[in-house]
Amino acid sequence: MPDPIWCDVALSHPEVPVRLIDAGRARGAGPENVVCGVIDVLRATSTIVTALGNGCAGIHPCPSPDAARQKAAALRAESGEDSTLLGGEQDAKPLEGFDGGNSPLEYTPERIGGRRLVLSTSNGTKTLAAAGGCGSVFIVSFANMSAAARRVAEELGRGKNRTLLAACSGREGGYCGEDTAAAGLLIAGVREILGKNGVELSDTARAALRVAESIDGDYSGMLRESQWGKHLAGLGLGADIDFCGKMDWTGVVPRMENGVITPG
Ligand code: MLT
Predict the structure, then answer these.
(1) I need a labelling partner for 194 at 20 to 30 A (CA). Which of 3, 6, 41, 74 fits?
(2) Is 217 in a helix, a strand, or coil?
(3) CB of 102 closer than 8 Å to CB of 89
(4) Do 59 and 254 contact (CB within 8 A), yes or no?
């Protein structure tokens, strides 16, 4: 009987390296044995899932706006000016020289279909950078929650990677309720599939489950009450909050390999 899956949560992107070290202690697992679900409900992972579902050819997350500008220039030099869009934000504000922001509603099939997207955001793309060494990295949001739980459980069941890390992006290096709730939903979904005895929870994972259980299904309402949700609403981005609060509307579970995110 194999050891149960070790399941942990990083509450923000700076915690990801520490949690990966802990996974090593708990299961002797290196990052290459970790299945990581990266979460940034408001809004990076919601945007990534939406853009790839709308035909985006691939997403290149970059941890800083300057790195994104350089990456976009290189892709355009390689494949033509129209091949790539440069999107993102810093503190939810547009960035100089960028084609778009970080709203999932911007990346329609007409705008992103067949094109690559280079993306740099305040927290989400930093989480992706921190998770890059994990054995498998999936992109998780409310939009694809059930499909993501199935895909993560399938990967864990293959036996090679026996550790699950739900990597919350958080807010400015700290906790945010929406990402932790999403981590709890992901863990609940994986336990539903693999069986509660098949998954051993860290204290943080257990707390995330409780956060998810405390929400009565009104995910948009929870987002509107969150600090970042209030900030976005104050900037007139309330439509993004309602969109990011929609649960399970897509089966797309993007995967990041070698720094590029594809529909999986
Ligand atoms: C983040 O990366 O922190 C968020 O995606 C910021 C945003 O809402 O654009």
Answers:
(1) 41
(2) coil
(3) yes
(4) yes
Q: What is the DSSP string of 41-61?
A: TTTHHHHHHHHHHTT-SEEEE
Q: In the predicted model, is pLDDT for residue 123 greater than 90? A: yes
d(CA 154, CA 176): 28
Measured in degrees and rounded to the nearest 5, phi and psi for residue 66 equal -65, -40
Number of H helices, E strands in the chain: 11, 10
Expressed in angstroms and rounded, the spacing between residue 90 Cα and the centre of ligand 1 is: 8
Residue 188, both tokens? 């609940």
- Atom of ligand 1 at shortest range from CA of 43: 5
pLDDT tens-digit readout, 190-235: 999 999 999 999 999 999 999 999 998 899 999 999 999 999 999 9
Rounded to 5 degrees, what angle do the CA atoms 143, 89, 127 make?
60
Model pLDDT for residues 164-199, shown as the tens digit of each residue = 999 999 998 999 999 999 999 999 999 999 999 999
Percent of the chain beyond pLDDT 90? 88
- C-alpha of residue 250 to centroid of ligand 1, in Å: 20
